[in-house]
Amino acid sequence: MPIDLGELASSIGGSITHLGDRPVRVSGVSHNSEWISAGDVFVAIPGHVRDGHRYVPDALARGAVAVAGEGFAGQSDLPVPYLRVSRARTALADIATAVYGYPSAKLKVIGVTGTKGKTTTTWLVRHLLRVAGHKVGLLSTLGYKLDDEELHQFPAHFTTPEAPQVQATLAWMVRRGCTHVVVEASSEALAQHRLRGTHIDVAIWTNLAPEHLNFHGDMEGYFAAKRILIDAAGFAVLNAADPWAMRLTDRPHATYSGDQAIAADWSARSLVEADDGLRFDVLSPVGVVRAGLPVIGVYNVANTLGAMAAVHRLGTSLPDIVKGLACFAGVPGRMQIVQEGPVRVILDFAHTPESLHNALSSLRATTRRALTVVLGSAGGPRDPSKRAPLGAVATDLADVAVFTEEDCRDTPIFDILNEMKRGADEQGSANYVLIPDRVEATDWALRQARPGDTVVFCGKAGETTLERAHETIPWDEETIVRQALARLDGTALD
Description:
The chain is α/β, with parallel strands linked by helices. It has 15 helices and 25 strands.
């Protein structure tokens, strides 16, 4: 519902120049002039290369009724009011929150952050709350869900939702009758204030390991971005096995740990890992219970305990939690089983040395014959130091490693593959091939597999594009793999 510009300025602490006699009603906001519609405020954000004020004429031509920013020489000459703010990036979030009616105040919000396990934990929390009878929305890196099971995607230009898209989606969830929402919070989103104005009831911290350091500078910068979610929450659920999490215990919290050697409020014992999932005893502040999770990967025990602690905090009983775990269908692209046999085919998002180690270790334990992994590493400035370690881990834990493309961007593909090769060579491994085209790599890996083998495709599961030097193409890893299996027609798998 439109809001008066004067009221908006007052609510966010901004000042307006030349408002005029007629009231101005605001119905939306964006920092991208191409996304402006009639009735919107255009927020001019100072950039590293270009100042957003240069796009003011385009925003006005598209119907902007006001411009917000930190000030510029031509502000007094604008044909619309100028809303001066101290920080444009935070104002974008504050305006969006006000325009959409502070939707998070009408929801119980659970936020999940960390380097690994965010997506699985987010989907687990939503599933457990739904089994307990709640209408639950979800905002995840894989897309968003409202009060049903349909996974929606933001339009291409909203691949990483900004504050206006976050608040608009939360408001939509409220209109659909949702009472809870689970939000996966990346470090970039937190650092850029995309969740500013979102009230967080419970925040889950999974872990922190080196990643995205090109954006954050160092681990302390990475930690500072992640902790924004915890600082904003009324209650924190912290992984006791993570030293970074233990720096956040000066607030109301509960702890969990998948490591039996580490004491925590929520922990696991008597773990059994089988082809069809995990079974373990849960030790909790409200009792001990045997739980089963139909998902492979021992590391998912920690994700499960974090989710259990969070939903219990919000009032879900332990019996209802266990009931929900037993029927969890998993997460697309997170240890997703595409085919159970004769060759087991798995999709997983593992794209760091540690996550790859965890994935391959779990698959090794339940693979009867040979284990093949297909993987690449991102190009550009995306943590190039992890390429050689990825090659070393892959060739150490798999019988065959296929090094291929994974968003090479402006980096020559063989610069990446040769770094992965170097990591393998330095530990004396020769069980790898280099196939730069990912479709060809997929075909090769499946052709050489035999009954009892496992083939796992890592790094691209759940993503919708593949970035090459001069093009970005649509990509659906599951479809690519299923098409390769169909081309085989079973002949190579007998």
